[in-house]
Write a structure and sequence with these properties.
Layout lengths: L10 H9 L3 E3 L6 E2 L2 E6 L3 E6 L4 E2 L6 H20 L2 E6 L4 H10 L4 E3 L8 E6 L4 H6 L3 H13 L2 E5 L2 H18 L6 H10 L5 E8 L2 E11 L2 E9 L8 H15 L4 E6 L12 H19 L8 E2 L4 E4 L2 H10 L2 H9 L1
Parallel strand pairs: 4-6, 12-13
Antiparallel strand pairs: 1-3, 2-5, 3-4, 6-15, 7-15, 8-13, 8-14, 9-10, 10-11, 11-12
Helix pairs in contact: 2-3, 5-8
Length: 337
């Protein structure tokens, strides 16, 4: 079975999750991989989250493969029940695998209330030579890379403590500026204490002696993944993030990797619709900028779509209560009716 791009199903990722205090489950059987993390929720109980999985090695079309998948799902459910798990949150590789899982657990596979990982990601083939990679970029992206070089932005990789500290400050500043919730500083530090140097590196963009952008980059299998990043609000005119990504791509290519994963995007066909007009406008504007930046490096590349997150419901009562608690007005209504 080929999982050389499935970082979130790797032993390294499990080790990282364990290092931040999470209980993990390893499940592998008959061309089937479903490593997961147990999440505990107040009042509701526990659920098992299988990021970017299960992974199956074969097509599910044949009768034999369908039976094999059904058997593996049942084994996974039995193991989850031993942990008193109320539901299993999965992120199937494709619609075919999702359909096979639905058939294996008839009637109890529901779309999750929200996705855990981006439903749409942008993965770029980096096997072409550097000149061709530059040539295929949008002209504005190529221009901004050259501009950052001309302005004297320096990019390097490191695991030195002082640069990790600078990265943490950038993450905090970026989260505050964009109004998003980031992980704790200890969480980010664990990448460098848990994952080996050949797998996890910090790439830093420096300008006039200041760190103005930095990214955590993961090297795994045939793919290099841009995982987390932060930028300073100052000196945005020197276009450091463009050169930072390009240097990361160059290093990935030089080390023999085939793909570069930019992470989540939202193209026009995948804009979220189930929200208010104000929320939709803000969400669309945020994702438009992110998507435009990433796609600019390879505009001919089609994004990769996943079915999204689904829940295999093992305890219907607990699952109903979980969904009830997700909506504060339900709680208020029940308290004051």
């Amino acid at each position: 079975m080929n999982h050389t791009r499935e970082l979130l199903q790797s032993e390294n990722w499990l080790a990282f999750q364990a290092s931040v205090g999470r209980e993990i489950i390893r499940f592998s059987s008959d061309d089937f991989l479903a490593n997961g993390i147990i999440h505990r929720l107040p009042l509701v109980g526990t659920y098992l989250y299988i990021p970017r999985g299960p992974i199956t090695g074969n097509s599910q079309q044949s009768t034999g493969n369908k039976q094999q998948l059904r058997g593996n799902i049942q084994k996974l459910i039995e193991e989850a029940k031993e942990k008193n798990v109320k539901w299993i949150r999965i992120e199937p590789q494709n619609e075919e695998v999702l359909q096979g899982i639905k058939e294996a657990f008839d009637g109890g596979v529901l779309r999750a209330p929200h996705n855990m990982q981006p439903k749409e990601i942008f993965v770029m083939d980096i096997t072409k030579d550097e000149e061709m990679l530059l040539a295929q970029m949008k002209s504005k992206t190529r221009y901004n890379i050259r501009l950052a070089e001309k302005r004297g932005v320096k990019v390097f990789e490191t695991r030195e403590e002082k640069y990790i500290a600078a990265f943490l400050d950038l993450i905090t500043a970026t989260s505050g500026r964009k109004g998003i919730t980031s992980h704790s500083r200890e969480y980010y530090k664990k990448f460098f204490t848990t994952l080996p140097g050949e797998m996890c590196q910090l790439f830093v963009a420096e300008y006039e002696g200041r760190i103005i952008a930095a990214n955590i980059v993961i090297f795994y299998g045939d793919t290099v993944t841009y995982l987390h990043g932060g930028t300073a609000d100052e000196h945005r005119d020197v276009m450091a993030p463009y050169l930072l990504q390009w240097e990361q791509i160059r290093v990935a290519k030089a080390r023999g990797h085939y793909f570069y994963d930019f992470g989540g995007v939202k193209t026009a066909s995948n804009q979220h619709k189930a929200m208010s007009k104000n929320q939709e406008s803000k969400n669309k504007n945020d994702w438009n900028g992110i998507t435009r930046f990433k796609v600019g490096f390879s505009p001919q590349t089609q994004s990769t779509m996943y079915p999204g997150a689904y829940d295999i419901v093992l305890d219907a009562r607990a699952y109903f209560f979980y969904n009830f608690l997700r909506h504060p007005k339900n709680i208020i209504h029940s308290l004051f009716r």
